[in-house]
Write a structure and sequence with these properties.
By secondary structure, the protein is an alpha+beta fold. It has six helices and five strands. Strands 3-4-5 form a three-stranded mixed beta sheet, with helices on one face. Strands 1-2 form a two-stranded antiparallel sheet. Strand 4, helix 6 and strand 5 form a beta-alpha-beta unit. Helix 5 packs antiparallel against helix 6. It starts with a helix and ends in an 8-residue tail after the last strand.
Length: 195
C-alpha cells in the first residue's frame, strides 16, 4: 500500500473512531457572531446619535473598568462561576480524547471499523457457547483496556470462568485489536432457575 493510501486510511479510521468537535465549534462561532453583531448594532446606534438599545459601548467599558466598586459580591461570584463553567464547556471537548465506542481493526486492504456493541455481541456469543448458558445469562462490556464478561449460571451447573476467559481471549485475538484489552470474567454466585 502506498504512503498516500495509508494516510487516507488512517485519516478515515481516526474520523470514524473519534467524535467531531463541530458542535462546540459551531456553538462558539454563533456566540461570537451574535456578540459582535450586538456590538456593531450599539456602535452604529451611537454613531447615528440614537439612543442605545441596551447599553452604549463607552458606558459598558467604564462599568467594566470600575467593576468591583459598588457591585454586590454575590453577583460577582455567580458571574465568575458562570463564566468559568462556560469556559469549561469549551475547554473540555478540546482536551478530552472524544473517542467513540468503535474499534479499528487492522486490514491491509481497507479501513475496517467495528462498533463496540457488535464486538460485545460476538464475545458474548463465544462466552455463552463456552459456558453453555442462554443469551440472557451473559453480559459483555467492551472498553479500551478491559473486556468484562458477567455470567449468571444455570442453578446446579458450574461454569469454568477460566475456560470462558480463555475462549473470549482467543476470540479477541482474531480481531487483532491493538492494544488487546484484558479480559475479566465474573460468574454470579446465585444461579438462574430453569434456563
Amino acid at each position: 500500500m502506498k504512503q498516500a493510501d495509508l494516510d487516507v486510511t488512517n485519516r478515515i479510521l481516526r474520523r470514524e473512531t473519534h467524535s467531531a468537535r463541530t458542535a462546540a465549534s459551531a456553538f462558539a462561532a454563533v456566540l461570537g457572531i451574535l456578540f459582535f453583531a450586538y456590538v456593531l448594532l450599539e456602535s452604529v446606534l451611537q454613531a447615528l446619535g440614537q439612543e442605545a438599545w441596551l447599553i452604549d459601548p463607552p458606558t459598558f467599558g467604564r462599568w467594566l473598568a470600575d467593576l468591583p466598586a459598588g457591585t454586590d459580591p454575590v453577583i460577582l461570584g455567580l458571574s465568575g462561576a458562570l463564566i468559568f463553567l462556560a469556559g469549561l464547556l469549551f475547554f473540555l471537548p478540546a482536551v478530552l480524547p472524544g473517542r467513540r465506542a468503535r474499534y479499528a481493526l487492522p486490514n491491509p486492504r481497507a479501513a475496517v471499523v467495528v462498533d463496540g456493541e457488535v464486538l460485545a455481541a460476538s464475545l458474548a456469543r463465544c462466552a455463552r457457547m463456552r459456558a453453555d448458558v442462554t443469551p440472557q445469562q451473559v453480559l459483555v462490556t467492551v472498553g479500551r483496556t478491559l473486556v468484562e464478561v458477567q455470567i449468571r449460571p444455570t442453578s446446579g451447573t458450574p461454569v469454568d470462568a477460566e475456560a470462558v476467559r480463555s475462549a473470549v481471549e482467543d476470540e479477541l485475538l482474531l480481531t487483532k485489536l491493538d492494544p488487546q484489552p484484558a479480559v475479566r470474567v465474573r460468574v454470579a454466585e446465585a444461579g438462574v432457575i430453569g434456563q
